[in-house]
Amino acid sequence: MGVRIDSRTVLVSGAVALGVSLASLVAYAIVNAIVSFDRDSNWPFAFYVVILLGMALGGRLAGRARPDAPLAHGSLAALGAMGVIAVISVVIDVALRNDIVDNVVKLVAQIPVPVAVSAFSAYMASRSAIA
How much is the pTM? Predict the structure, then answer.
């Protein structure tokens, strides 16, 4: 009686979430290189909101595609996207000889928020797809 996971839905939804997230991270890196945000600046949160919107969009796609199991598909899509971002972050840190542990801990601590946003968006999309 379990939930059947549609891998295509998870991959497509996760790819959308990842694409928006990577675009936001690249935009942040470019703007930070030009402007050089202070440590106490709140501007990085604007880019984080874009990441969350990408996760919500991915979740919405998952919920519309699989209204029978929106939470599982939305959560897995965001979790996959965040996993790819974590791997990219570690590779960049290794290449730049930065401290890996500090950034990985920060990233792992943030994972529940994008996953929750994606799952909630998937749930809301599934409710509108059913009605």
Answer: 0.90
Please tell me the distance from the alpha carbon of residue 54 to that of residue 37, in angstroms, as a whole number. 23
pLDDT of residue 54: 97
Q: Is 9 buried (19+), middle (13-18) or exposed (0-12) by CB count in 10 A?
A: buried
- The per-residue pLDDT for range 17-33, each reduced to its tens digit, is 999 999 999 999 999 99
